Amino acid sequence: MPLTPLDIHNKEFNRGFRGYDEDEVNEFLDQVIKDYEIVLREKKELADKVADLDERLAHFANIESTLNKSILIAQETAEEVKRNAQKEAQLIIKEAEKNADRIINDSLSKSRKIALEIEELKKQASVYKIRFKMLIEAQLEMLGSDDWEDFNKANDERNELVREG
């Protein structure tokens, strides 16, 4: 066990023949006690400081560990968000492709329907043209026939009878 300042102070030496000067020894011991007390006080202060620094170091090590874990969690979360965003983007693209295919198919269907309607209208126009031509030819033939002249003669005769009569 180390000496304390009190141990040094209470130490008594045996006296021998022609021993040391008691006052000089006591004065030296007083100086040693003072220096020893200073050393012990400094040692205690340094030990307290070391304990405080160890505590702070442990605190900062804990913060570092927490920050590292937080960074890892943030990175994992960012990766998960990125993966989810990519999946969502793929779903949106697939949905857009389906819609585009549907729109194209609808457009092609409408285009075919309109083309069929146009063909039908062309046929009807052709039939109408042929019928109209036939009607005009029939009317021209009727105008050119003798029946028309007979009709005019009969009509003229009737008009004359009505005047005379």
TrEMBL record:
InterPro entries given for it? Answer: DivIVA_domain (IPR019933), DivIVA_fam (IPR007793)
Tell me one Pfam family matched here. Answer: DivIVA
Q: Which family does it belong to?
A: Belongs to the DivIVA family.
Which PANTHER family does this one have?
A: CELL DIVISION PROTEIN DIVIVA
Q: What is its main location?
A: cytoplasm
Record key words, sorted? Cell cycle, Cell division, Coiled coil, Cytoplasm
Q: Where in the cell is it found?
A: Cytoplasm
**Does the keyword Cytoplasm belong to this entry?**
yes
Q: What biological-process GO terms show up in the record?
A: cell division
Q: What cellular component GO annotations does this protein have?
A: cytoplasm
| Coiled-coil annotated spans | 29-56
Q: Does the keyword Coiled coil apply?
A: yes
Q: Report the protein name in the record.
A: DivIVA domain-containing protein
Top-level taxon in the UniProt lineage: Bacteria
